[in-house]
Amino acid sequence: MERVVSGIRSTGNLHLGNYFGAIRNFIKMQENHNCYFFIADYHSLTTHPNPKDLHSNVKQVLVEYLAAGLDPEKATLFIQSDVPEVAELNLLLSMNAYVGELERTASFKEKVRKNPNNVNAGLLTYPVLMAADILIHRATKVPVGKDQEQHLEMCRKYARRFNGMYKTEYFKAPEPWNFGDDLIKIPGLDGSGKMGKSEGNGVYLSDTPKKIRKKVMKAVTDAGPTEPNSPVTEPIQNLFTIMQVVSEPDTLTHFKEAYADCSIRYGDLKKQLADDIIKYIEPIYNRIQEISADEAYLQKVAKLGAEKARESAQKTIREVREIIGFKKF
Questions:
Q1: In b/e form, how buried is each residue of 286-304, taking b as 16+ CB within 10 angstroms?
Q2: Which residues are part of a known binding site for L-tryptophan?
Q3: Cys-Cys with 82: which of 23, 51, 228, 306 at CB 3.0–4.6 Å?
Q4: Using H for helix, E for strand and C for coil, what is the string for the chain?
Q5: Mean pLDDT over residues 222-234, rounded?
Q6: Does position 147 have pLDDT exceeding 80, yes or no?
Q7: Region 146-174: what's the mean pLDDT?
C-alpha cells in the first residue's frame, strides 16, 4: 500500500478551488492508501503569526477539512507541531543541505523579492522542513502542485544524499502524485486566473449565504455578446466553469444557449449561480458549524492524529539515529 504524505496550509479558510482541487482527491485517497495529512503550523512561523491567530487558524483548518470529508479513522490527520520528531529530522537533514542550493530555489528568491525585510532562516530552509515532513513517514507518494515540484525534487535529493552518505537504502525517493483529470481547476470571481486566498476572489466553504450572494453578484463579467454564437469571453467562461460543478446540467445548458443567442442576462446568471453554490456547500457549511462548537471532538481528533503520526515518526527517528551513529552509553 502506498504511503502518502501531504501538508495542509494552516492559514486561511477553504474555498471551492481547494475543495474541487485537492480535498475531494484526498477523500478518495484515504479509502485505499495509507495517508498522512498534516496541518503545517511550523511552516507558518516564517510569517511571524500572532499566537492567538496561529491557534485559531489551525482550529479552523482542522474543522473545515473534517467537515469536507477527511476521516480521522481512515487517514492520519494531525497537527505538525504535535509531532516533535519532525523538528529533529529537520535538524538532521539540514546537516546535509547546502546554502547555495537553498538560495537558488525559486520560492526563496520570490519570498526575498516580496518581503526583503523578513528574509529569515526558516524561509531559506523551508525545503528541508518539507523534506522532513515527507521522509518522517517514509512516504512513497506526495501530491504536489506546480509551485511545490522543486521542493519535492529537493526532498528526493536529500533522501538520496542521506543514503549515499551513510551507505544505506533507508529512504525511498518519494514520487509526485499527479491527480491529472481528477483535478478540477476552479477559477476565481475576478474574471481570470484561479480561485485563491491571496487573490481575494474566492467563495469559502464557511461563507454565509448572504456573503456568497454578495460575492457572486460582484463577479466580473463583460459587456455581453453582440452577435449570435460569439466566442465566450474568459470572465463568462469562468462563471460557466463554476456552474458546471455546482449546478444541474440543464441550468448550465440554459445559460450557455442564452449567451449564444444574445438573450443572456448576467444578473439572472449570477443569482442562479449564487443559489446553486449555497445549495451545494450547505451540508459542509452546516457541518463546519457543528464541529466548531464541539471542542471535545476536536481534542479527540487531534490526540488520535498525534498518536498515529508519532508512532510512525518515532520509528523513523530511532532508525535514523542508529544509522547516523548515535548510541546510548
A1: ebbeebbeeeeebeebbee
A2: 133
A3: 306
A4: CCEEEEEEECCCCCEHHHHHHHHHHHHHHHHHCEEEEEEEHHHHHHHCCCHHHHHHHHHHHHHHHHHHCCCCCCCEEEEHHHCCHHHHHHHHHHCCCCHHHHHCCHHHHHHHHHCCCCCCHHHHCHHHHHHHHHHCCCCCEEECCHHHHHHHHHHHHHHHHHHHHHCCCCCCCCEEECCHHHCCCCECCCCCCECCCCCCCCCECCCCHHHHHHHHHCCCCCCCCCCCCCCCCHHHHHHHHHHHHHCCHHHHHHHHHHHHCCCCCHHHHHHHHHHHHHHHHHHHHHHHHHHHCCHHHHHHHHHHHHHHHHHHHHHHHHHHHHHHCCCCC
A5: 93
A6: no
A7: 92
- Summarised one tens digit per residue, pLDDT across range 189-210 is 998 778 877 677 889 999 999 9
User: Would the pLDDT of 22 be above 90?
Assistant: no
Residue 64, C-alpha cell as written in the block: 473545515
The domain limits of the chain are 3-184+295-324, 209-289
Sequence-distant (≥ 6) Cβ neighbours of residue 30 within 8 angstroms: 70, 71, 74, 75
Q: How much is the pLDDT for 200?
A: 76
Q: Per CATH, which fold does 209-289 belong to? A: Tyrosyl-Transfer RNA Synthetase (1.10.240)
Residue positions counted in the chain: 329
Q: How far apart are CA 158 and CA 135, in angstroms?
A: 9
Say whether pLDDT at 183 is over 70.
no
Binding site residues for ATP, as ranges?
Answer: 9-11, 17-18, 145-147, 186, 194-198
**Over residues 126-153, mean pLDDT:** 89
What are the residue numbers of the active site?
111, 194, 197
